[in-house]
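Researcher: Final request for today, and then I'll write up notes for the group meeting. The sequence and the SMILES for magnesium ion follow.
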Amino acid sequence: MNLPESTRIAVRGLSGNRLRSGLTMLGILIGVGSVIVLVAVGNGSSLAVQKQIEGLGTNTLVVFSSRGGGGRAFGGGAGGGGRATNGTQSSATQLTMKDVTALGDKTQAPDLVAIAPVITEAAVTATYAGATYTPGQFVGTNSDYLSIRNYTVAEGAAFTADDVTNRNRVALLGQTVVTNLFGSQDPIGATVQFSGIDFHVGGVLTPKGSNGQQDQDDIVITPITAVQDTLAGANAPLSQITIEARSRGVMTAAADEVTTVLLGTHHLTDATNADFQVLNQATLLSTASSTNSVFTVLLGAVAAISLLVGGIGVMNIMLVTVTERTREIGIRKAIGARRSDILGQFLVEAVLLSLLGGVLGVIGGLIGSRFRIVGVTPVVAWYSVGLAFGVAVVVGLFFGLYPANRAASMRPIEALRHE
Amino acid sequence: MRRPLLALEHVEKRYDAGEISVVALREVNLAVTRGEYVAVMGASGSGKSTLMNILGCLDLPSRGKYILAGTDVRLLDDTDLAAVRNRMIGFVFQSFNLIPRTSALRNVELPMVYAGVKPRERAERARVALEMVGLANRAGHKPSELSGGQQQRVAVARAIVTDPAIVLADEPTGNLDTTSSGEMLDLLDRLHESGRTIVVITHEPDVAMRASRVVRLSDGRIVSDEYQTPRAAVRSGSV
Ligand SMILES: Nc1ncnc2c1ncn2[C@@H]1O[C@H](COP(=O)(O)OP(=O)(O)OP(=O)(O)O)[C@@H](O)[C@H]1O
Ligand SMILES: [Mg+2]
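Model: Predicted protein-magnesium ion complex:
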């Protein structure tokens, strides 16, 4: 007997008991669907981290003080921010412009191409023509900051090194800030008050969107000198120093150079006593990203177990079916069905169950992956679709084999006598 | 004498049920030539069905030989036996044994499905067989929608659709009223006339009268084996 014939008989067998077939398929459907959705969630959060890395610049180092002033680094870093504290509070040396100057020495630190001191001011209120808004970040820095952090200017112009030297009060606004303060008006050339201090709007940044955790367009960037003159005070320590290394390949060397230079300026000899931290954000994030893929695998494993349970459901139902139809099997054998015919019939029935369940599961999984789940936008990993579907069919085959074989090996006379 | 189509030689069938073992057939010797119409009679439990199952290759003798068309069935494997059941033997069961929730036509088609006949030809031949048993207008009915007599006739149609040389019927009239049973016997007569070898189990004398030979079983042994002139004259009119 050929496949179309077995399929026809199997379809008739399945449709003879629709509710039961449907419920069995539901088991497979949920298994396949959850593999797809959960892997998509894991995958989606990995991709979000990846996007963050790209947003940061892949060859960026961030230095901040181990205690006091620096506090929280720029918001992006998953797990970034001063963790280690060593030494004592009293011997604290903050990061200063002297450190920045020392780092600029090409003979000591040849792998650094750009260095930007950063002062971040918290809770700065911006006012313009009656509109008030508190930007997520208010950053005082130099002209290199934009390129290090992959910001570009969409309208107007970036401030220059001269603006920094001349302590000009100019500001670059992120799109979110523009929208909140100006609505649809043109902000270029307008004067905005930041906590009462007038700043000139010099340009608008090209929108970067969210990096997964933070709106990168909710930012105001100004010359560091202007911030020292006004909001922060002349002797304010730096929140952090953002550095661009020559390439991704020299990150370790660059970090070592930074450590050596800063140990010198802070008059320390032992790196274990360092009162600052050099963070390779990209490295931190790739650690986060690999944690994420462990997470994906775990989610996938949980889903795979549910697929297995679905498979056991198929086996259970097939065993019931075989027992129920023992007499039918006897009749078929009595009129000439071979072992292989009966085996084929029940195997096709089991595979059909899991195949249909698999197809519906793929559809369900793809639909489910369109929704935001626990704050993650799922991204369907196509391998998981193929895998889940393939495994579902194999599961049907595997778990169908035992019941089908049991049916096929019945002796006709005994099967016929079955009541 | 011609070589027999079916031959049982010193056949014994023993059922082992735990401690006790039942001997259902002992020292059975029976040779049936092509074209014979044999009635098997005997009290309940005398081993008639056991004999029939062996003749139909549904079961194997515990001892002795069964030679079917010159072949010892003990030498056949599962697949060969399936093929023999499919091509050579048409079996009509006492309890119909149609596949439930499946139309009469499909039930009749089934042996041809396993014989690998193409769907179109299958349906054609199944229709002809149903016509032969007078059920052409019931082809689409499921067994549950048919009367006992009609179900039995579907079973006969299924038994003859592959044109088997041997038709075995285990009390084909057991569940039928006089009219249906008369129709059934007429059908068997016609099959016999068309040259098939027929073995019928019965405990009704008027069924046995139609046969050309009557074999009586008692306690698993053949106690009498007589040839007779079939009384087809008492045929109960046309179908
Ligand atoms: N599967 C079995 N296991 C054990 N004993 C069996 C089995 N089948 C039949 N027997 C025994 O074998 C003997 C013959 O049984 P069989 O079914 O051949 O009788 P029968 O002549 O067909 O009777 P009936 O006219 O009632 O159908 C009986 O004593 C029965 O109990
Ligand atoms: Mg019987």
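Model: Residues 60-246 of chain A form one domain. Residues 68-91 of chain A have pLDDT under 50 and may be disordered.
Researcher: Thanks, that's everything.
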